[in-house]
Design goal:
heterodimer, A: mainly alpha, MetI-like fold, 0% strand, globular, B: mainly alpha, 2 domains, 15 helices, transport (chain B), cell membrane (chain B)
Chain lengths: 307, 307
């Protein structure tokens, strides 16, 4: 069995490790190096400038504005997405009419709902962005949303949507929610399916209604999935690059209302050729992401319930 | 009513005998009906919110630009198949489709082969550095890609010998490298669940390590390979940021880039019918995969979040 073992191990690991080292590990290390230079990327010269880029970043109103927009999304989008996901999953799995003498059932057709709800998750974010760009078209006749509002007599609610500074960010956040709810419906459904039915039966016997069953049984037993889902959705909310780049005016507008950190980084590097400064933004994003993940893990921790 | 009664009732197959209606239904029948209507109402509403925009793309792909803009909700008056040929030829979607097929085809195969080779060695062999290499791979899942793209751009541009920017093989290698962390993580745990005895029997019969892997272990790992293969296919087919940065030549564009470019150039004018047909062209392969492998897609993607 030992014959040629090490040659085999080296043979199988060499290529994956070379690729991984070259395209992931080495860029990761280089990002820190580049962030301390004034490299413009075009000429070969990159001067070491220490923490100057970070200082400039700290004083940059544009970056703080982008970070603030990301943080707004980070607070709102996961709450709404996971809330809707839990609500739908609960209805699909527990909200059904009692039939076949089952005390707890899902509504009929729950497979069809899951199939449809999940769909936005599998299509490209580019396509999602183009679709919603059309829905938000500000023209009262051309825009789908405005046309719909007009048709049902709610003309007063018609809006310029992405062109309106006060609502543009929330329009983009809504698209994020729209795209990801189905994912959480499926995720939470799987978790709910593993909760023993006896627990629900006992609660129903004790006279609990659905409201109580949800908050006293389902939610506590699902807490692990909710916590992981929260981190995952938060990281998506910290991105938002493709949606903002394709949908928003400018992009990042109107007047910086939808600007986000990844868009700042992308434009600083690949439009303005300030690679050192953009790399410092990358490090800042790493710090923000890590801080968020650690805080969530820290504060969302509950005593683990075995069942 | 006692628990025993409910359990007895529950165990019966089929409807309860006439004259003794199911006890559970009798107890909460009214609440169940009302809630059921309510549940279905909300679920149908969300299904429409998800489904209608996607169907809108489909029916708009057969309308002319005027029809899409002036009457966004209207059904097509006649089927304009020329939208599809315009998209394929004049909007270059054919070329972008081909580019995507080449890149994704190469990288899915490469990811599966290299990823399972590395995972197999890490799961089944003890050697110094095994744990270190495993965690090195897994750590890659937590690097924000935005932080890596700037150095990555220069790694490809300054590649020894020739620039890898805007080449098929460059993009394929990068896609493989960025898919390795999750693939290795997933396949390692999968290979651990496979029985050791089969591999040992093959070795005793004189098969080499390599032969055992390709002819015995890999076929046994088929369910895992399908899940992770679909996961990688969807992720790479829909990839947006990496090609945006590394693939800036128009004749090498992948579908997501092509669509974003057309959408951004159009503003609110030009050939919307062709854009919608182009979106359908980009969506169809994903749609087919999702329709066939619905279960695997849902479980694969949710497993991705629960790493």
């Amino acid at each position: 069995m030992q014959h040629g073992k090490y040659r085999f191990i080296v043979g199988f690991l060499a290529l994956p490790l070379i690729l991984y080292g070259m395209f992931l590990i080495s860029p990761f290390i280089q990002a820190f190096q580049i962030s301390m230079t004034d490299w413009s990327g075009l000429s070969g010269t990159a001067n070491f400038v220490g923490l100057d880029n970070f200082e400039r970043l700290w004083e940059s109103d544009d970056f703080w504005n982008a970070l603030r927009n990301n943080v707004y999304m980070l607070v709102v989008v996961p709450v709404v997405t996971l809330g809707l996901g839990l609500f739908f999953a609960f209805m699909l799995n527990v909200g059904g009419k009692r039939r076949k003498n089952e005390v707890v059932t899902g509504v009929s057709g729950s497979k069809v709902y899951k199939f449809v709800f999940f769909f936005p998750q599998v299509i490209s974010v580019t396509i999602v962005a183009v679709i919603w760009f059309n829905i938000y078209n500000p023209d009262p006749n051309d825009g789908m949303l405005n046309a719909l509002l007009g048709a049902v007599g709610l003309d007063s609610l018609q809006n310029a949507w992405l062109g309106e500074k006060s609502v543009a960010l929330w329009c983009i956040s809504a698209v994020m929610v729209w795209g990801h709810v189905g994912f959480y419906v499926v995720l939470f459904s799987a978790a709910m399916a593993s909760i023993p039915r006896d627990i629900y039966e006992a609660a129903l016997l004790d006279g609990a209604n659905r409201f109580h069953t949800f908050f006293r049984i389902t939610l506590p037993l699902l807490w692990d999935s909710v916590q992981t889902g929260w981190v995952y959705m938060g990281i998506i909310a910290l991105d938002a690059f493709a949606l903002v780049q394709i949908m928003s005016v400018g992009p990042g507008g109107p007047d910086g209302a939808t600007d986000v950190m990844p868009l700042r980084l992308y434009q600083t590097a690949f439009r303005d050729s300030q690679f050192g400064y953009a790399s410092a933004m990358g490090i800042a994003m790493l710090v923000v992401t890590m801080t968020f993940a650690l805080l969530t893990m820290r504060f969302a921790r509950r005593e683990r319930i075995e069942f | 009513m006692t628990t025993e009664q409910i359990n007895t009732a529950r165990k019966q197959d089929g409807p309860a005998p006439a004259g003794s209606p199911a006890p559970a239904r009798k107890r909460t029948g009214g609440e169940g009906t009302v809630l059921n209507v309510f549940s279905h109402g909300i679920l149908v509403l969300w299904a429409l919110m998800v489904g209608v925009p996607l169907l809108w793309v489909l029916w708009s792909a057969f309308k002319d630009s005027n029809g899409i803009l002036s009457d966004p909700w209207g059904l097509p008056t006649s089927l304009r198949w020329e939208n599809w040929s315009n998209a394929w030829n004049e909007a270059n979607m054919g070329q972008y489709f081909l580019n995507t097929v080449i890149v994704v085809g190469g990288s899915v195969v490469g990811t599966m082969v290299l990823g399972s080779m590395a995972a197999y060695v890490l799961a089944r062999f003890t050697f110094p550095g095994n744990r270190f290499i495993y965690y090195l791979f897994v750590a890659g899942m937590s690097f924000p890609v935005f932080m890596l793209v700037i150095p990555l751009f220069f790694v490809l541009r300054d590649f020894p010998g020739t620039s890898l920017l805007a080449t098929y093989h460059g993009l394929i290698l990068v896609y493989i490298a960025y898919s390795l962390p999750f693939t290795v993580f997933f396949m390692t745990s999968f290979f651990r669940t496979l029985p050791v005895s089969v591999a040992e029997a093959a070795m005793i019969d004189g098969a080499s390590h390599t032969r055992t892997f390709f002819q015995v272990m890999l076929p046994m790992a088929k369910p895992g390979l399908i899940s992770i293969g679909i996961f990688n296919f969807l992720g790479q087919w829909n990839q947006y940021l990496l090609p945006m940065v590394l693939n800036q030549e128009e004749d090498k564009y992948v579908l997501t880039q092509g669509l974003a470019m057309i959408a951004l150039q159009q503003g609110y004018e030009n050939d919307w019918g062709a854009l919608m047909a182009g979106m359908m062209i980009a969506m169809l392969p994903v749609l087919v995969v999702y329709a066939i492998f619905q279960r695997q897609v849902q479980s694969g993607l949710t497993a991705g979040a629960l790493k």
